[in-house]
Amino acid sequence: MNAAARLVHQSVISRHLVLSHFLTRRQITVVILALAVLLSALSIIYVTHVTRILHAAYQHNLVEREHLHVQRGQLLLERSTWMMQARIQRIAESKLGMVVPDHKSVMIIHE
């Protein structure tokens, strides 16, 4: 074995000895559990944040839906105003020169 390979091999062994000397199995388990609790807490914070953002967007969409509902009602009212029979008849008489026929000029045809 060359010198570099020996150094690498010795450092791996020495790391293992240092880890086994300083950390027991119980301590490693406690460290892993502490990391799991920390990760769980951070994920709860993230999910709560995303939930608040989505709830705010939902509330905004509800307000926009209500506004669009009111606007649709106004447009339907305006359409019904424009489609009133009296208004159409007045425009037909004034701009187009049309008149309502009298009863004598109306002929009913039966097949």
From TrEMBL:
Pfam families documented for this protein: FtsL (PF04999)
Predominant cellular place of this UniProt entry's protein: membrane
Keyword Transmembrane: yes
Membrane topology: Single-pass type II membrane protein
Record-level GO BP terms: FtsZ-dependent cytokinesis
Domain of life of the native organism: Bacteria
Gene that encodes it: ftsL
Origin species: Aquicella siphonis
Entry GO CC: cell division site; plasma membrane
Name of protein: Cell division protein FtsL
